[in-house]
């Protein structure tokens, strides 16, 4: 009996940080926007320090790592690393086909064996929120594959204008229907704070116009706000999410106020529109581009901006490091929320090493290096 009491006390010490964090977060949600800020129900500023956890958007239709470790334990590892939120990509093909996930992909999650892809996706979200993490589902790609290639069928939310070319055909209407299927089971989970409506909207040769995307985003957002009017709507920029200049003249406007968060992606190869990727920029050139593209929204107190993807290799090249150091400096200056790409140790299709990843193959050992040190300087708060 004494041993049981000791074990119970030890377990309570281990779980206490998660319980307190979960209680704090659930008590303070839902959230709203106010100028550049995201505020909780107690009017406290919410700074999103997020990580991407991918797999459900790729060829296996399942969030990666579930063959190796239980989803609850991966969620606790993410929380211990200091992240307060997770961006969780999915593909439209997952929603259309909703296949049963093979048992070997769920070896460490025996309770999910026999379940469909959407059920597994929802279960992972519930594990994340049970650990006290905020979750932002992301419609990443139409056809389940690694994003983002030159395939025109995946550059935008709909591809029906291409006729019979696309393996997975999608209209704007079916894209919105897919969103409803993903979000309806999550309507009463207060830590699912919203939806990242589409990843890296782009067109061939820069032909995607902001006004076209803004109109589609409003339609999808209104459909989701019908399910839960308290969700935030994350709207990415065009040109692979790097360009939000169009908001100056054409902001996204919704029937429910204080719901819009804009999102940018910034990588070393970004900046291609000016024929000079960020890997080769001076800080002054880099910062000027950031302010022109999206940071003006923060500095003019117009709307929140979340850098929904950023990242670099564990052994970076000179150009990688140049970009990364400039980005960290700029994020510190403008105090933007961000989401690191990515948690994963390997890419799903061919099991290639993920040099941008933050954990090892056991999905437990953290690859703590300069990247996480820099994220600590940006507000990441590891649990010790």
UniProtKB/TrEMBL annotation:
Query: Which keywords are on file for this protein?
Result: Glycosidase, Hydrolase
GO BP field? polysaccharide catabolic process
Instruction: List, alphabetically, the InterPro entries matched.
Output: GH (IPR017853), Glyco_hydro_5 (IPR001547)
**Locate the Glycoside hydrolase family domain: which residues?**
70-345
Q: Which GO terms describe its molecular function?
A: hydrolase activity, hydrolyzing O-glycosyl compounds
| Alphabetized SUPFAM superfamilies for the sequence | (Trans)glycosidases
Keyword Hydrolase in the entry? The reply is yes
Q: One Pfam match, by short name?
A: Cellulase
Tell whether Hydrolase is among the UniProt keywords.
yes
Q: Which domain of life is it from?
A: Eukaryota
So what family is this one in?
Answer: Belongs to the glycosyl hydrolase 5 (cellulase A) family.
What is the protein's name according to its record?
Answer: Glycoside hydrolase
Species name: Rhizodiscina lignyota
């Amino acid at each position: 009996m004494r041993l049981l009491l000791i074990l119970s006390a030890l377990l309570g010490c281990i779980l206490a940080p998660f319980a307190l964090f979960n209680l704090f977060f659930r008590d303070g949600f839902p959230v709203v926007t106010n100028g550049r800020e995201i505020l909780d129900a107690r009017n406290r500023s919410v700074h999103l320090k997020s990580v991407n956890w991918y797999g459900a958007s790729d060829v296996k239709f399942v969030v990666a790592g579930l063959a190796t470790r239980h989803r609850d334990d991966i969620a606790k590892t993410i929380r211990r690393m200091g992240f307060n939120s997770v961006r969780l990509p999915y593909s439209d093909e997952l929603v259309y086909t909703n296949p049963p996930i093979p048992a070997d992909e769920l070896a460490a999650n025996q309770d999910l064996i026999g379940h469909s892809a959407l059920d597994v996706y929802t279960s992972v979200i519930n594990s994340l929120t049970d650990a006290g993490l905020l979750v932002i589902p992301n419609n990443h790609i139409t056809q389940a594959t690694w994003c983002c290639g030159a395939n025109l069928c995946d550059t935008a939310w709909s591809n029906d204008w291409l006729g019979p070319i696309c393996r997975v055909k999608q209209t704007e209407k079916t894209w919105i229907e897919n969103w409803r299927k993903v979000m309806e089971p999550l309507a009463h989970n207060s830590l699912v704070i919203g939806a990242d409506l589409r990843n890296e909207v782009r067109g061939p040769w820069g032909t995607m116009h902001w006004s076209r995307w803004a109109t589609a985003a409003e339609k999808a957002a209104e459909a989701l706000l019908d399910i839960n009017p308290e969700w935030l709507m994350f709207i990415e920029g065009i040109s692979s999410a790097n360009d939000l200049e169009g908001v100056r003249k054409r902001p996204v406007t919704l029937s429910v106020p204080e719901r819009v968060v804009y999102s940018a992606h910034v990588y070393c190869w970004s900046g291609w529109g000016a024929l000079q990727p960020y890997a080769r920029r001076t800080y002054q050139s880099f910062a000027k581009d950031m302010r022109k593209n999206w940071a003006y929204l923060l500095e003019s107190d117009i709307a929140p901006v979340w850098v929904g993807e950023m990242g670099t290799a564990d052994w970076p090249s000179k150009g990688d490091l140049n970009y990364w150091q400039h980005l960290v400096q700029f994020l510190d200056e403008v105090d933007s929320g961000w989401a690191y790409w990515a948690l994963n140790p390997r890419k799903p299709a061919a099991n290639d090493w993920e040099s941008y990843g933050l954990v090892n193959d056991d999905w437990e050992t953290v690859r703590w290096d300069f990247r996480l040190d820099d994220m600590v300087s940006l507000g990441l708060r590891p649990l010790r």
